[in-house]
Amino acid sequence: MTGEAAVATPVDPAAEPPRCDILVQLAGCRTADEIREGTRRVVDGLRGLGDDLTIGIACGSDCGALSVDAGGAAIVPVDAAPPERFPIVGAVPTDAYRALFDAGRRSGARAMALIGTEVDQLTPGVARALLQPIIADDFDVVVPVYDRQVYDGLLNAAIVYPLTRALYGRRIPGQLGVDFGFSARVAERLSQGGQNPRLRRPVWILPQAIADDMRICQAVLGVRLPAPPDSIDLATVFAQVLGSLFVDMEQRAPFWQRVQRSQAVPTFGTAAPGRAPAGPVDVRPMIESFVNAFRNLQRVWTILLPPATLVALKRLTLVEPERFRLPDDLWARIVYDFALGHRLRVINRDHLLGALVPLYLAWVASYALEVQGATPAAADVRIERLCAAFEAEKPYLVRRWRWPDRFNP
Amino acid sequence: MWNEVQQALHDSTTQVLTGLARLLPGLLALLVAVLLSVLIASIVGTLVRRALLGVRFDEKLAAWGTLDLPAWSQTRSPTLLVSRFVSWTIIVIGALIGIAAFDTTLTSSLVLHVFGSLPNILTALLLLVIGHFLARFLSRGVLINAVNMNLPWAGLLSMGVRWLVLVLTTAMALDHVGIGGNIVSLAFGILFGGIVLALALAVGLGSKDMVARSLEKEMKRAPEEPHEQPFRHI
Description:
CATH class of the largest domain in chain A: Alpha Beta
Number of domains of chain B: 2
Helix content of chain A: 40-55%
Structural class of chain A: alpha/beta
Oligomer: heterodimer
Largest sheet of chain A: 8 strands, mixed
Distance between the termini of chain A: 64 Å
Shape of chain A: globular
Distance between the termini of chain B: 106 Å
Number of strands of chain B: 0
Number of strands of chain A: 12
Strand content of chain B: under 5%
Structural class of chain B: mainly alpha
């Protein structure tokens, strides 16, 4: 790596990108000042990984016109949309992951990183943590581990992590992060989306990497996962995240039906000691929302859920708010039944995912009541128990997936 | 006198029997045409269903994604829909051919009339079918969204939307086949307006207390720092 700072010259986005060993996309930096500062921190973080490594910094298509002090790095203009909050390769060329893979492949990069953490949290250590396992240890995918607080990433904790862990057999909780490291092998596999028929539909990167037997690890970043936008609508999030996850799950059914147990992946770095325990929260609005949904959504849930589950939910509507608990095995079966309903298209898919929202809020209320006053470490133990329930109930999913018409009490 | 009466009775009996004898071949032809058309319809329907199952028509239609028929109608598969449509078309054509075999001015004009108004009837039926599915689809969407917004009158709102769509499409169908004339438009206007008014009153009266409480809370509330929502869903 060249140690001297240099002012990058504008590069034509249509031209072939300069050759580099590492390509970093600063998706969390938008203005010229942010790109300049982000570039400086990335270059600082990668110093020492190797003496002769060249670095490319990928930013928006107009960043080539910026006069950025790239600190020895080359600026690569990449026409990319902001990344989604889940690692998925879309079919459009401006999809952030696909754009990075395309640029990485064309520039001959050995390692790539998509950094969505904004410049106020971005430290040199983030870039180093994401890229070192690829350069030094030959890993293919580096998944972030954030400083998680008890009520962070609840959709991930409730559905995405337990479901993907039970399906694909890898314990990777950071799937809904915004910072990832990738090897050239991943770029080679996933960059040719237009020619690959499998990429015409959503392809979640991690399940694909597991199916391709790539080497996956986690890296502790030492930062907190950025907050979602305030105007977030849960039904939209469900449609984007769970809709694509269920479609992906449908396509990989022959693979995940063979997976039986989960295993941990290597983790680099040590997580910071737990923060202050979570304070009490008011979960009554969520419970009221669930009870209201039970009164009104009966005829929709009846299509999706078996009678025993409906009876258990009815019992739940009658308990005192302080004793409100959604059992893990029941929640796992609910998620599996919705995944099956999504596959069979028993009702419109957006309606199906919308009908899951009140049940999810019931889970959040139950979880919040259980972990109030607990440390993040204790909350992680609670999530671990939920994951174990998803794994234990997996035969139920496999059975229903293979024989959906069989009687299910 | 008696002879003349006897002659008249004989003549009319002969006329009735002659008419019946003339009608019988036509009836037989109608029966044969209907039976044949049912036979052909069942054979062609089965062939069409098997062919569509063979090419995995349902899955392909689902894979195209744009036409989400199974989601709109949970009990009928597109394959079943197409094969039944083909079968019924053959049966109707067979019946019409059978009726035409009477070869009388009356039946010919009946056939002409039926064929003439067939497009209108089919369009009206199509409108009713579309209205049925649309009402179910929209009412379910409204119900789920209203529940997710935690509205207590979600069920009422959903039912209102369902009946609005059903009334609208029924009025359109009746208007299309020319039944009822102005009465349909008038009745539709009254019903539609009635449903909207009923919904507005129900929602308005139902939310009166809520709005009052909300305004009261807003007026009493001292300016405070917005507290951070502890839950982060993603």
